[in-house]
Fold this protein.
Amino acid sequence: MAGQETTLQLPLVLIVEDDENLLGGIIDILTMDGFCRVIGARHGKEAIEFMSEETPALIISDIIMPQMDGLELLTLIRSDPELGHIPFLILSARNQQRDINTGIAMGADDYIIKPFTPQGLIDTVSRVLGNR
């Protein structure tokens, strides 16, 4: 029982990624590190549905996805008074400086370029969550 209490106190990270293999890999990387709980959504609409039940401590989102892309999700999050404070990281293969600048200008807290290293992802998440 004590282990469950500890798990419930860990910050929740919401990963929004339509590539199921990459989504599973990111969940595995962050879960194995053990400093957060992780849940996945395949697109922005699914992420919004999840957030109606639980508010994450951090959102990491791809840009190009079906139904609602990452920039639409970012805009929606930033305009919501209850969710606007949540740190938001963009995770994208779009690596041009203009893409990065656009994401940051729209309110993203950081921009992770695919491909990334597991340690680089852990370091960024740790920095944003302030856990290490």
